[in-house]
Every structure is written in structure tokens, then in C-alpha cells.
């Protein structure tokens, strides 16, 4: 499938990390994601009911991240993927989360995960 929805450079603040100073002060995280979706129905009908509502997904991601206190970026990425895959039309998602300034001499550090609905079946 080649149809995709992209959300780029979603900059949020949250508690993330394992060190004491990370647990006491909100940090920036930068989220980029791609959702593999069949967009034909929405493209033909021009009806929101045929489309994946990326605004709703984004609001849920913002709520999750800003109210979370994950230790690992990997866990955050997994939880963001679950949100994206709630809509049954989303077949797969790729999530990239970065912590700008987390390492000296590096602009950012991050992870990229790819998930399908099968990754969460039985969870």
C-alpha cells in the first residue's frame, strides 16, 4: 500500500527519562509519524466519514504524551503507535520520537518504531 498520512514535527513537553533531573523537569519531544492507510474511499467521496481523522489522533497523542511520565522513549513510541492503530483503516504506522538536546554534541537522540495491528493483538 502506498497511501500515507504524515504528521510532522509535533513538538510536545513531557516528563521522560531515567535520570533524576529528567524526572523533575519537562523536556521537549519531537514526534513524526506516518500511517499507512488506503485513501481511495476518502479520495472518491470527499467525505470525512471515509477518512482517518488525523486531528482526533493528534489530540489523543498530545493528551497521552503531555500527561505521561514514561522512562523510555521506546515505551512512548509504542503507546503512540497504539493510538494510531485504533482506527481499523490504519494498516501500519511508523513513529519517530526524538529528545532534542538529550546528548551533548548531538542535536537530538531518538527512536523509530514500525508497528501493525498484529503487534498489539492479545496485548
TrEMBL record:
Reactions catalysed:
7,8-dihydroneopterin = 6-hydroxymethyl-7,8-dihydropterin + glycolaldehyde
This protein's GO CC annotations:
cytoplasm
**UniProt KW keywords:** Folate biosynthesis, Isomerase, Lyase
Pathway noted in the entry:
Cofactor biosynthesis; tetrahydrofolate biosynthesis; 2-amino-4-hydroxy-6-hydroxymethyl-7,8-dihydropteridine diphosphate from 7,8-dihydroneopterin triphosphate: step 3/4
Q: What does this protein do?
A: Catalyzes the conversion of 7,8-dihydroneopterin to 6-hydroxymethyl-7,8-dihydropterin.
Gene3D superfamilies, sorted: 3.30.1130.10
Q: Which family does it belong to?
A: Belongs to the DHNA family.
Kindly give the InterPro entries that the UniProt entry links to this protein.
Answer: Dihydroneopterin_aldolase, FolB_dom, GTP-CH-I_C/QueF
Q: Report which superkingdom the organism of origin falls in.
A: Bacteria
Q: Indicate yes or no for the key word rRNA-binding.
A: no
Q: What does the record list as GO biological process?
A: folic acid biosynthetic process; tetrahydrofolate biosynthetic process
Tell me what this protein is called.
Answer: 7,8-dihydroneopterin aldolase
In short, the EC number is: 4.1.2.25
| Species per Swiss-Prot/TrEMBL record | Gimesia alba
| PANTHER family reported in the protein's UniProt record | DIHYDRONEOPTERIN ALDOLASE 1-RELATED (PTHR42844)
| Record-level Gene Ontology MF annotations | dihydroneopterin aldolase activity; isomerase activity
Describe the location of the Dihydroneopterin aldolase/epimerase domain by residue ranges: 5-115
Q: What is the lineage of its organism?
A: Bacteria, Pseudomonadati, Planctomycetota, Planctomycetia, Planctomycetales
Q: Decide whether keyword Nucleus is in the record.
A: no
Amino acid at each position: 500500500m502506498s497511501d500515507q498520512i504524515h504528521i510532522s514535527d509535533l513538538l510536545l513537553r513531557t516528563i521522560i527519562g531515567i535520570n533524576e533531573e529528567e524526572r523533575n523537569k519537562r523536556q521537549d519531544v519531537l514526534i513524526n509519524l506516518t500511517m499507512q492507510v488506503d485513501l481511495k474511499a476518502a479520495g472518491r467521496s470527499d467525505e470525512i466519514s471515509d477518512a482517518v481523522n488525523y486531528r482526533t489522533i493528534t489530540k489523543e497523542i498530545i493528551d497521552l504524551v503531555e500527561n505521561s511520565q514514561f522512562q523510555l522513549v521506546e515505551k512512548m513510541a509504542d503507546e503512540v503507535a497504539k493510538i494510531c492503530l485504533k482506527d481499523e483503516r490504519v494498516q501500519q504506522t511508523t513513529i519517530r520520537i526524538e529528545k532534542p538536546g538529550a546528548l551533548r554534541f548531538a542535536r537530538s537522540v531518538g527512536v523509530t518504531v514500525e508497528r501493525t495491528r498484529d503487534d498489539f493483538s492479545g496485548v
